[in-house]
Amino acid sequence: MAIIGNPKYKERIQSHLAKYETKRSAVMPLLFIAQEEYGWVNPEGIDEVAHILNMDPTQVKSIAGFYTMYSEKPKGKYWLQVCTDLPCALKGADEFHAWLKDELGVEEGGTSADGMFTVDHVMCLAACDKAPMLQCNFRYVEELDQEKMRELLAKWRGEAVQAANGRN
Amino acid sequence: MHILLRGREIANIKQLKVYEAHDGFAGLRKALAVKPSEVIDIVKASGLRGRGGAGFPTGVKWSFIPQNEPIKYVTVNADESETGTFKDREIMEENPYQLIEGSLICAYAIQAKSIYIYLRGEFWDIGDQLDACIEALREKGYVGKNILGSGYDCEVYTHLGAGAYICGEESALLNSLEGYLGQPRVRPPFPAQKGGGLYKEATVVNNVETLANVPYILTAGAEAFKAIGTEQSSGTKIYCVSGHVKKPGNYELSMGTTFRELLYDHAGGPLFDDRPFKAMLPSGGSGPIVPLTDEVLDTPMSYEDAERIGTIIGSASIIIMDETVDMTWVASKVTKFFKHESCGKCTPCREGTYWLDKVIDRILDGRGSPDDVKRIADVAENMAGTTLCALGDFAANPIIHTIRHFPDDFAQHVQT
Amino acid sequence: MSDTVTINIDGAEFEVAAGSNLVDAAKWRAGNDIPVFCYHPKMDPVGMCRMCLVELGTPARDRATGEIMLNEDGSPQIRYFPKLQTACTTTVSDGMYIKTNTQEVIDARNDVLEFLLSSHPLDCPICDKGGECPLQNLTMQHGPQASRMYFEDKQLLEKHYPLGDLIFLDQERCIQCARCVRFQDEIVGDDVLAFHERGRRLQIITNSDPGFDTYFSGNTTDICPVGALTTADFRFGARPWELTDVPSISPWDAAGENITLSMRLDRDFGGRAQIKRVMPRQNELVNEIWISDKTRFGHHFTRGDERLRSPMIRTGDTLREASWDSVVAEIAGVLRDADGDVAAIAGSGMSNEDLWELRRLMEGLGSSRLGAWPPTHGGAEAVAEVGLGAGANLGELGKGDAILIIACDLEEEVPIWHLRLKQAQDRGAYLVVANARNTRLEDLAVQGARNDKVVEGDAIRFDAGDAVAVMRDLKQTQPAIAERIAQAENLVIVAGAEGLTLAGSKTLAQAAGNFLIETGHAVKRNSGLLSPLPGANGMGLHYLGYSPEASVDIMVKPPKALFVAQAELLDDVADARSWLAEVETVIYANHFDDGIAELADFVLPIQSFAERDGSYVNGERRAQRFYLAQGPIGQALPAWKVYGSIRQEMGMSHLKPSAAAVMLEISKNVEAFEGLTYKALAQVTRQFPDVGGRDQYYGGTAYTNTGGIGVQIPAAAEGKKTVKPAELEEVDVVTAGDGEILVMPITRLYNRQRNFRPSLLMEPRILAPYVLINPDDAQLLGIIQGDMVEIVAGESTVRAQATLSDEMSAGAVALPRHMTDAAVPLWLTAGTVRRVAVAVASAD
Ligand SMILES: Cc1cc2nc3c(=O)[nH]c(=O)nc-3n(C[C@H](O)[C@H](O)[C@H](O)COP(=O)(O)O)c2cc1C
Ligand code: SF4
Ligand code: FES
């Protein structure tokens, strides 16, 4: 499905357009909507956003490329971004990050074979007192250790299976 | 004393009713009862300085806004991306109405048309909560047309960033909000001037913590605020403590409290009793690092005293490192941050951060030479003072100061 | 406020224009070249590269009194900024001090270069820009001896990334100055270039469809301060230092863009000098430092294989090659027998010298039948009367001024005017675009470019054929717009011929002229009338006595002997064959054979603009010189020499020794050309901004003007005490009968005209034949998008694909000229459109 003409987003798009003095200002929120719809900022999403805002698609892609929260490549179902910035690293975040990649058998930025998890690292997320931490699809998970992480991975796997079954 | 982190004392202050019951919006009412310029005078008199990093006097900033421009804006800097900073987050999570009230007072003082709260993208659930707060306020007449019957209209909106530290820099923030690349603008014109602000209109950009102080200043009075803290640093400040301490977290203390009191009495001292403190980054990655000597520990945390010991208070994101930490590694970590966050617009920052990172990696790998240490020091010196915005200076700081204070940490990697 | 301020540069004082940019001022007044990469005098400063750092100080003022504080010796106290400042983002102010030669500044320049070079591949020996590269030049002057960065760590990036069909990006060489991005955004108004990613991964991209595809894309390769952007035409073509530069004039349209032909002796061209590339030559009054891609890439016809190489004479059914002497002698003989029943049709690519000799020949034969070709546009008379005022510069139009563009598609017809007038709007001018269909300039007029710039503009849409009425009755039908443009400080009207007959376009120009006269804009420097007359020398044709009406008359009453001079009659009119058959002797002189050779009795090869000296008069009435650049093709001669030889043969006069001598004669005989000697045309004055020369980092590789900035012919109205509006003739309205529809020929920049075809690079940019139809009309005609249709109008029968668009006014279809060999009508004509084949499923 597209974002244009999709009832799911109609109201949100309208409210973003109403917020700003120029249409162009709405490019960031609309890119989030495109990412939500397609799972990543794909060419269709860029063209649609460009169309809605009367921008050139080049400009929209430029914005998408500048910010780290827009992914221009498909990601696993769960995008795990471990903060490895200094405060977290002082609390073992680098080791945690390395362990997690091992655990899932992925390289930096890679996606696990089952397409479930993409792992990479990010800069400070303003949760330094709760290190190590990560964000999973932009939701913070704090004060982590290996045991807690294994449980979470199992839980997410379970949720994904459930969701898949529910769909059938 | 908690002026900002009042959520720690008053349960549920994030609910409008509770907030109202505890003097909520008394500041705004006071402000609306006087002329806008008087509000600016009160804030000037309070001595409040910006909590976003630069410590610029807030009232003075507001007074730069031209009075006769028809359209003006307030932009709240909630991008909170400095390494080690997590204070604005707690304010917004636990005491959101106070931020909005402060912003409305600012908006009234400069007669702004609307307020945009620029949140870092990861704060999207905070954004949702703020949106709900704004709706609640609209229903009760605090936001929108004819606020509290004063005849003054003002809208409040939230905007989410999407992962870019540079968007905390005020002119980059404005570009980002306008839908352009989040890269800094040439100044002048400054945001407070026509042509330099949001949509080219005069705009105040203030940090979350700065604005959250304002309701208190209005209700308790400028004098009461000025009575807290030191001569040149009034009020309280939230210090974000992270790294090798027992109790990391936010601590709101009067300005002028010593580092020792913060780190030992509040943050519980070294994480491991047998590993004493070695060094501190008092303003995240961007401020000069200092060794945690007794002299430093006994220094009051104020803008002026920090300067005396060769560093800054900045946003007061205090990262503590114990004796096990290699400062070359710290320099590398911080450099990786700035390399990742350099927007690429100006040459020295774009190329310099990359260059620094490459050479420090060599040094850490044991492939470096003593020349390499000199080389990064030179590169950092070349960056400092030549870049378009302060990020280049920020990136130079950790190199210059780690080498200055901890030469042995570098030397050990390049011994042949 | 005074107009100048005094600033101190390295200890010396200079008076500079108030409000000017410090880099510009230092260069213009003090000859101090502050090095820059990102700054460009035609674009807003961005302060990105940090190359222009200087020490900057201003007089200290007492806080209380505001007075300037003085030193003991009475000189002002100067307070310097603690950090170096970027000169490019600094506006001069009175009493400002700058230092550009201190150790700190020298070090800073060195450091910035060292940073840039740390990413830059040092592939200068194989780089197209090598030898004229700002980065290379500045490194020589200010750079480090050796880079301290490790070379093995340089990043490897795409070296041949196509931004479009014409421009390639070498990502390794790009120094992220954003000049190309800003050019597209600020100058062209089409923001199809942008940065992607950030930090050191920042790269130029395009994500538009089509990609980097504007009529001005080549200019980015000039202003790119490194060899990151190259044209598909010149890439690896030659090394800049092997090239010799010859000043010239674009042969394509009424703008008369000043160009430089970069020449090299070429083995593939028999060791003769060959055009390797076409570059802009600065003329701030005409094209500034920009040229269109057609001008830049369309030069290949000058040495195409199809060029005619030797004179030919018909005997019976065959044409045979002959010597010039015998050809000239035979033509003279034919002419003697013609008894004065001769005529000439001259194309708008002919130089003034050619036109003069041809006219003298005709006069000598007793004929005054001088046709201007193509006879599509009237309006030259009105331009001669009330064209732009003396010293006009479209680059000065801005706030308070107004522009009306009626009945043309300026971007397609005269791209540089489009560019400059669009920029005038960006500077604040009020732009009105009136036409029977949508054009890109109309979009820009009402919405502005997509860069949030607020612009003032309006559009007027009318039915095909109604332009004259709209212009004549503007005050009644569009009172608000008419009032606003009438009140403007300056008013420029561009009146075209789209949707009109020949008489219609002539009357439209007169009506526009009347409007200018009535509103007091007739003889004002930056006001007046422009007409997008086809070709490079539409105004030259007019001044030398050629008219489109005469061409029409010749078509109706063919003479015994006809000179067809640089006019492609068969390509332009469908029934040319039939009336040419009535002509006894056709004397055809051109670069190519358009099929007429079958009919012609004499076929004469003549030289293109690149092979000879000559002059053109542009639409702003500026006479400009071009110079011999390329080696000759076969036995081709300059046309003036051919006609001069015939005159000599017939005993009328001696052949002139040079084009300069012909021009001297013109200047003595034709009032408008008074004083226009080659010497006068070659004169140059210093132009702002001071681009070109050695410091290519300032303005890019646009060339200094050494060939002359030309001389503007005064508008006739300028000599008169009072200027009276012209009496407007009633123009017959073209109407469509039952089952008919109006067919409106339109012009596309990229088309299949003979002299554009040999530039093969441009072939993919030329659209397939199409016709624009309003959807309502299409429905009535039973036509859907993509159908192949046949358009029959007058003698013309053209096949084209139907393109439905509600941006086309109903009741007419727009049919581009020269998309195939089939000639479309010259003017608005009633005709029929019918489907001949069903839409082929298109790719999308
Ligand atoms: C690279 C850079 C990053 C910054 N990041 C932030 C930030 O995340 N939050 C913030 O409030 N100010 C940040 N600032 C400071 C702002 O530019 C600006 O000074 C501040 O928002 C002003 O508000 P204040 O006067 O209330 O401190 C940053 C500055 C720079 C140069
Ligand atoms: S391609 Fe050239 S003009 Fe464009 S940003 Fe790179 S160096 Fe500048
Ligand atoms: S910063 Fe001034 S020329 Fe680039």
Explain what this protein looks like in three dimensions:
- The complex is a heterotrimer of chains A (168), B (416) and C (844).
- With 168 residues, chain A is α+β, with helices and mostly antiparallel strands.
- Helix content of chain A is 50%, strand content 11%.
- A four-stranded mixed sheet of chain A has the order 2-1-3-4, with helices on one face.
- In chain A, helix 2 runs antiparallel to helix 3 and helix 3 (43-53) packs across helix 4.
- Chain A is globular, with a radius of gyration of 18 Å.
- With 416 residues, chain B is α/β, with parallel strands linked by helices.
- In chain B, 44% of the residues lie in helices and 13% in strands.
- Chain B contains 19 helices and nine strands.
- Chain B has helices at 16-21, 26-33, 36-46, 58-63, 87-94, 96-110, 124-139, 170-177, 208-212, 214-220, 222-227, 259-266, 294-297, 303-308, 327-341, 347-365, 370-383, 391-405, 407-414; strands at residues 72-78, 114-119, 155-160, 202-207, 236-243, 249-254, 277-285, 290-291, 317-322.
- Chain B has a five-stranded mixed sheet. In chain B, strands 3-2-1-4 form a four-stranded parallel sheet, sandwiched between helices.
- The model of chain B has no long low-confidence stretch (mean pLDDT 96).
- In chain C, the strands form eight sheets. A seven-stranded mixed sheet of chain C has the order 16-15-26-25-24-17-18. In chain C, strands 1, 2, 3, 4, 5 and 6 form a six-stranded mixed sheet that branches. Chain C has a six-stranded mixed barrel with strand order 30-34-31-33-32-35.
- In chain C, helix 7 packs across helix 21, helix 8 runs parallel beside helix 21 (639-649) and helix 9 runs parallel beside helix 16.
- In chain C, 58% of the residues are buried.
- The model of chain C has no long low-confidence stretch (mean pLDDT 93).
- Iron/sulfur cluster is lined by residues 169, 174-180, 204, 224-226, 228-229 of chain C.
